[in-house]
Write the structure tokens for this entry.
Amino acid sequence: MLNKKITLLALCVAAVQNMSALDNESFVEDNSFTPVEETSYHQDPQSKTMKQVLEPVMEKAPDWTKDVADRIKLHGYAQGAYIYNNANGENSNSFDMKRVIFWVDARITQRWSFSFMHDFMSVVQEYYTDFSFFKNKKYLTVRFGQFKHASTYENPLSPTGLETIDVYSEGVVYLAGCGSDRMFGTSYGREMGLALYGEAFKGKFAYNFQVLNGCIINTFDNNNQKDMVLRLEYRPVKGLNIVATGRVGRGQNMLPYESAVTGIGAGERYVRNRYSFGGAYDCKWIRLHGEYLEGKDGSAISRGGYLTGSVPLGLEGFEGIFSYDYFNYNVSRGYDQHKAVVGLQYWFFKKCRVQAQYVYKSAVVNSGANLLDPNSLPVYVRGANHGVQVQLQVRFN
């Protein structure tokens, strides 16, 4: 008790002395910057006790803001367009916000990471975790979750790097489950599953093996069989990439009626296989990619190919783009379509651009068909169908 009283008395005496010193000191206005450590730790520069105590702790403590910035990367982009179409003898035009996508990459450890992607114009797109078996090497990584599958050359690519405003070729949109295969539904080229991928021989060879549910995203598998995808890439020289992909599995017709394209009945399970062979070439005067594609849905065979590219026009940021695309949805029924695209694009800032394109199609899907009665109207309408599209793309990494 005596010690406590002595301590309290000492503190009171010190306080009185400090107040007396302040009273005797003249006030001087000072607009200069006061160091952070002076204002944070104490007000009296004469007293170093608190600073001396905290400095060793602060030196050892991690900078959590820098740590978070190093571990978490934010990305996003938006693509908005004006679209005019003359299809089946009818004109239509509209503004369209195609995609507003935001995603986060989080590095948990040097070999373990997590990603999440959401499209504000549709649904949650991706959520998966990666684990690399080799530090600072790309030999083998395992991925689990919902992600873009590796079938076809184009499907794994970002829309922000592809030349056409319609993004993927007609064959890729159909065979990769991006929306035009009504039996499969819209899966945005993504599925739930497990993947093993990596590179070897200093990046000249790459592989990706995936086991997938084989149904649309954000749903439970609708059968007990899994789809398998294998992708092989060979990069013999800089700028050249040769790609072969294959997929085997089974699907289930989600339509409440027999498909007018394939003849597969409502709810029927069927063999669904896909194959492709193609690649890309990139140099300072041209950028090209293309592939041959084939699919099998039950007994129906689909087949097609495309070639798409861009060339610099001599003015900084300006490029001409072109694409020719052929796809036959069912070779035995003659559901073939030719598509051609020409246009310009201007890269005004990093991955930001403005695009203007003319699109020609020799046949279009009849959007007025009664989904509950496939025989009410023809599935395809032949004839010259034209369109003009203008798109603004903004992206940050």
